[in-house]
Amino acid sequence: MNDILLINPRFAARHAMAMAEAKRVAETHGEKNQSLDDIADWYRSRYRSRQRVTITASGIAIIHVYGFLGSKFDPIYNAVGLVTDYEILKHEFDSVLNNPQVQDIVFDIESGGGYAQGAPSLASHILANRGKKPIYTYSDSMICSAAYFIGCSADTIIASVDASSGSIGTRMTTWDYSKMMEQAGYTAHEWQATGADLKSAGSPYHAPTEAEKEFIQSSIDRTNEGFQNHVLAARPDIDLEVFRAGHYEGEHAIDLGLVDIILDRSELEETIIAMR
Fold first, then answer.
1. CA-CA distance, 160 to 142, in Å (whole number)?
2. How does DSSP classify residue 186?
3. Total number of domains constituting the chain
4. What is the pTM (predicted TM-score) of this model?
5. Is 1's pLDDT higher than 50?
């Protein structure tokens, strides 16, 4: 199911407003026959956005993980830098992994997560390449849900004292408009092939049947099991309390095994160089 999410609800609500604003800007400027690049430049000059991979003079590659995570987004969202595409992350990671000028790799994360589809393969790819170069995750904001799925694949996780980490869980929202439609005088009739009783699972035009509830719940649980198994493979000593999907800061995050080091961003580069 493509609607299964690995996302922190607080982040989702906040970021949805930014994405709606980007869409409004695109539509307004599109009416003026401006190109996608022009719209992106205008937006990036006024709002925060995702940066492309950067390499410091000391040989540290910074891969920026910002905003809503997923794949095959509307081009405007990628252009203005409000989202981070899993495939772009994989491409940037492989690029710096094979760059002889790069000594260390840092995933600089400011994200509460995103879509489940695409996260497991990227996370597994990063984990499989441990040992080739030191890989770090850093956040001074939020590293939650799908962002933690990716970030925990690093050798070392570093966070500021007030960064939120965790939200290791899976969720999905379905809507039931049937009562509203009934009050308005509408009745939906949904037809499906004989024996295909799960074809309309998740439809907003009827209350879910018990079989549909069981099917959707099992899909969410399978995705969540994969998430938990990856976290355990990457961080075997993590406290199982984190699988309740809470998010934590500071020393609490350290105690639970979500984070290894508490550090201010200003000290990050010096610390990484000292750890070589």
1. 10
2. -
3. 1
4. 0.90
5. no
